[in-house]
Description:
Oligomer: single chain
Strand content: over 45%
Number of strands: 14
Strand order of the largest sheet: 1-2-4-6-7-8-9-10-11-12-13-14
CATH topology: Porin
Radius of gyration: 19 Å
CATH architecture: Beta Barrel
CATH superfamily: monomeric porin ompg
Largest sheet: 12 strands, antiparallel, barrel
Amino acid sequence: xxxxxxxxxxxxxxxxxxALPAWAQQAPAPAADSAAELAKxxxxxxxxxxxxxxxxxxxxGIGSANGSKMVLxxxxxxxxxxxxxxxxxxxxxxxxxxxxxxxxxxASESGLGDAVVTAFLSPSKGGxxxxxxxxxxxxxxxxxxxxxxxxGIGPSVVxxxxxxxxxxxxxxxxxxxxxxxxxxxxxxxxxxxxxxxYNWKSGAGITLNVEYTHDWENDVDVLVLNFxxxxxxxxxxxxxxxxxxxxxxxxxxxxxxxxxxxxxxxxVFPK
Length: 271
């Protein structure tokens, strides 16, 4: 257990340290963006904005053993300016999981899950915001029950349109395993994430977020609806913070949780 906790702490520290060089190069300007403008940027997965979301997902009533699972996703978004016309937006997702009675009755696992790293090449101008690039599945899980044991790679794309306080768009990727343990099943999965949101001038917002995954290897669908997601932007001293919370409704597979809750705290670093 101590070893697992050490690995968890080390993984979280590495993710945060990875963002530090970009923070140093892109220090916030004295005049911060308005709450409405920040909320609009946070609704955009590839906005030219440094942020560090801490997203917690709690699901209960999983399977025949009525299991439960808590996943804390640490998700830094670090943009890099390549030229006047192009940006490289890097997104990191490092999950820290704890589950009970999911892999079997009276079984419990905790530690790091597999990380996903994506790099989007995105134009800095245009009416429709879009980005495309590679996504990588990295086998960082500290327990077999929390990860695939496979290194994966595939394409990822995102596109959205923003007008006034409205944002509508979607993100998708497809990951295929290319290396890893021969004793583990192959990874061949498509992820679709359409989203629709409205933000008021105060910085408050409401979002509809759908997460759909199809496992082609095992012919399994996972469908989660996060709605309504209520969010807001505020400050603690000089630190800009966004909060969000929503119920989670699971529609597939048959072993889906009965219900869940998502809560997020996002540290924002306006330029």
